[in-house]
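sanity check this chain:
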Amino acid sequence: MIEVSNIQKKFGKLEVLKDINFTIDRPGVFAVLGHNGSGKTTMLKILLGMVLPNQGQIKIDGKDIGGTWAYRKQIAYLPQIARFPENLTVKELIKMIQDIRNEKGKADQLVCQFGLNKFLDKKLSELSGGTRQKVNIVLAFMFDSSICILDEPTAGLDPVALIELKRLIESEKRNGKIILITTHIMSLVEELAEEIIFLLDGKIHFQGSLDQLGKETEEDDLEHAIAAMLVA
């Protein structure tokens, strides 16, 4: 369970988040949407403890996460752009993360699922963008975390890898995970998400199901519904 209360964040004079409140009290896929600069990535980084809010409180499973770090073990994170030492091989990177967590996880299964066996001895500097993203997916999902945060997870993926990612997300949802996704691919949201949290100018402009959004905007598809909110 995630409870976000009165979160505010400023960078200098720029107010990025303005009194954000929402609760997620069940497993499923929740899409955090908004135009560039709407504050969605900042909100996710606050959940991760990577950015500190100026005001407000976040609870995970009823416990305030402020000033703590142990809760992060419950969270799997796939960043939009992951940075790792370029001289490491894929195998070395996976082993490094396993050693940090003192846990093997299901890396072998995911490596096979995303066809990475032939890249295990390749250095990260030698990989294409799409292959790097597959490695990032393995790192994000290899441990059994109750919350998954995926920031633009489809970046660079070929159609086969995209299908596998969707299967993986559906599997994690069935296993009772809370999955937060930011993406500009509306077809992915329509296919996977039960609920949308839409940020506009640092505030939550809408939270609810796709059906509720359609009724509110009187639009039949998600792209037009989102566009209607942006111009309202």
Remarks:
- The two ends are 32 Å apart (CA to CA).
